[in-house]
Amino acid sequence: MKSVKVFFAMISLTWLAMSFHVAVAAEIKIATGSKSGVYYPVGQAISQLLKAKDIDVGVLSTAGSEKNVDMLLQGTADLAIVQSDVLYMMSRANPDESYFKYKEPVKALRGLAALFPEHTQILVRADSDITGVLQLVDKQLYVGKSGSGTYKNATDILSSFGISKNDYISYARDISAKKAIELLLEGKLDAVFDTSGELKINDPGFKGRLKMVSLNKEDQNRIKKNHPYTSFKQVRNHRGEEYGVMFSRALLIAGPEGADVEIRHDTIVRLIEILIDNLEIEIQRTGKNIETFTTGSLIARGITIDLHPAAKAYYQEEGILLNIRALQLMALFLFLMLILALLSHFGVNWKWSIWLRFWGQNRFGTGWRRTVRIWNVLVGNAFAITLWVLFFILLLAVIAILSWEDQYALTHNVHNRFADLHLGELLTWLITFAATGFSQDLFPHSLIGKIAATSIPIIGLGGLVSAFIYSNLKRNQRTDKEARGAHVPRLEDHVIICGWNDRVPALIREITTTNRWVKGRKVIVLSEHEAEKPLEPFGFIPGSAFFCRGISSDYDKLKMVNLEKACCAVVMADHHKIQRGNLRGLYTAVALRKTRPEEEFKIIAELYYDFNESRFRYAEVTKLIPLERVSSYVMAHACMNPGISDLLIRILSFDESQIALFISVAEDKNILKAVKDKTFNDAMRQLRKQNILLLAVYRIPEKGTEHAETELDFRNPSPYFLNPSAQEDSQYMISEKDSLLIIRSNIADTSLEQAWNMALGQNLRNSERRLYGATDEHLLIIGRGKEIRDVVSAVSNSAQSIISISMEENRETEVAVFEQSGTRRLIEKTTDFSLKNLEDLVREHRDIFAKVTRAVILEVSPTDSGLEQEDVIHQDDAELSYAIVLRDLYRELFEIDLHIAAEMRADVNLHLYHDIGIVQPIPINRIIELILARMVFHRGLVSEFFLKAMSYRPDNYKVRLEKQSVATLSEKLNEKLVGTTSGIPSYFSNKIKQLS
């Protein structure tokens, strides 16, 4: 009996213990934040509302969002208020994430509601000069408590600008945001980060004493690039001033399924209803100034984790959460009907009708025939197709508007008004808008939503579109003929390119420029190109370039390309013209001049063989580009003035940030006012105030000063006037009849200095990296034929010594050393020089090659004139091979990385050149392309000037391209150059040796 009593006593105690556990667990615990923050009073407001409904809630003060997640996972809290971006990152945690201790995604938590948006505010004193994030470097900052959402947001923003913990002084004491703001106002802090639903700048206690660091669009894109989950919005202070801020949302979430206290589903529903109806009013009683509360679909859509099942069911039932599954199924049905209608239109329907008739009659009798007739009405005519297309597109538009407007509302924290409409209302709105074009005070905000809403009226234009089908077909046929060269449009004031080589595509792009300073021109290419549609692969601007198949010296073909109305012609050195001594190019020039004898019509020609120069001049070619000489000019400058080829490309191209222009003084009233009746130096100083760099004055040629337009050297006297300090007429006053060669910004609202710095960066400003003393150089030059002889001749008087490896046409190779004194010493003479010979040569004469400071590799592989268009990728293979051998040899023998400059004909090889170790790739073809293109504009004087300025020949009297230091330029301008202006080097200097 006693044992029975003991047994019942134990049962009773166990039941009491269980009852006690349930009673204790019945209290719902909600984790919030610091008592001085916003989360804690919000938690108290929720507690008060639920207690009024007999739901007991205890409010826990915590360190912040990360701690709240910990408590939910450990079961010490049942609900929590968490920052949305913190929760998002924790739900997608990875080993590289440094903010959280969890290295695996936290997936178990469940969302209940989005409460209100929180703004990440960067607060500074009202009198602070801090206006940007980068100004926070080395400042005393408060970035929030460790583990809080504020801390994470502050770290995200600072790290996006490259600011690490070592770049600022973090206030180490554990204080609240309110206390931090007080320290900020006392001058003990420079800035305070605070993520809160309250805008502190509108707090009555701080009004007028604080301001925020606004994040502009560039800042926002920078942060979003590193942290794609971030969102931004504009907020206003009490004076109406706008600030760009990062924002997240305060979320109410529940613990994992199976927690110690599993909150009943009906309790969850009651909780959400209370929050929607009463939370905003209850918060006002706490005295917290939360700017806005989340409403509408954002209550559910603003949550960054999966919804609690009870919450999801409630939101869908109330229409708060968008459910487009039914609409998608309806769209699928309409799509199938559309397919059936299209198949019917193409003659398949009759087979289905027969099958359907027999199938129905066997089951439903003769009455089935009526069903078949209805089927034929639905899918058997053009009207039915139009109807199904309309229904399908209408429904797609509705789905697109609902989906994208919902996404827009989420990312911009605005209410989605379309979510409040049912399908019938949406269709009515869409049809009314399509019919009237009136937005009814309701129109999508998202781009896709706008497209969907406006695409319906376009459908109504279907009949009109069909009317153009025939004309479009005809146009396509004409376009196809034009691409094949069988038809050429009648153009006027266009450029005719005669011939084809690998420079033509880039030349077309430059001539058809859309640059604001230069009027681009249309182009017709007259060539015997073997490709079916030679211009098609290059993707030129539609209607800007055309092709005519034929021989360029054929008078009928020249008439076909409307030579009579062309502004100029460019004769290219293609393989047909190179063969037989470039005579075909000469014949083309003769035919062009015979047809257009007037002096205003320009003929620009590439000269492949110098011995034909006099013949081309006799054919009255306006501008002649001797390819070998230009190549040797550029390569000589690569030896003496590294970086000038880069400069030429940047100022001759129409697409770079600065541009060289030739303008009349009277053409621009601002320039006229700045330079008229002023000396060169005074004009230069005045133009610099307009962000213009003056290079030269071109005076109207007087008798005896005219230049032959095909000459590539300055003569004396000359119409060009520059660097007057070394000239007798240094006091010449510029008149409105003169013209100017200038460099100015090619970007709207950007100064020349800014444009220059954007384009050239540190490369041209870093003298240690780019500037060489030519007199200290020991050069190794490898090349072929006349080009290497010209280059060696140009630089032999400047460099300390030159080792020349010259490969001649007769397959002989001479290796010689040129001293600055003028002596020449032959080292070796051989035939069929190869890479192995180069290696043996360096090893054998190690003492000579050890002095080399820079190697220059010219064109070492002869051009195969039997090909119409060389394989551009492999054009530079020989030069690359020599560079690799030299690089490896100097690393092995002398343990140095030899500075190598090499001629480059294919621009696609640029990265390969750098990867191999060639410091100076010299893009010869690109420079020639730009020179040719500039010959078309400004009477060719821009190209002419730079070609003449590159000449090292004794005939070049006036000026030569050379690097000058900023100090020299300052002395010349008689003023100190500071700031970004000092980044602009001068590349022009008078010859040291003047003619007597």
TrEMBL record:
The chain crosses the membrane at residues 326-348, 378-401, 451-470. It comes from the Bacteria. The keyword Lipoprotein does not apply. Residues 1-25 form the signal peptide. The keyword Cell membrane does not apply. Keywords: Membrane, Receptor, Signal, Transmembrane, Transmembrane helix. Pfam families: NMT1_3. This is TRAP transporter solute receptor, TAXI family. It comes from Candidatus Kentrum sp. FM.
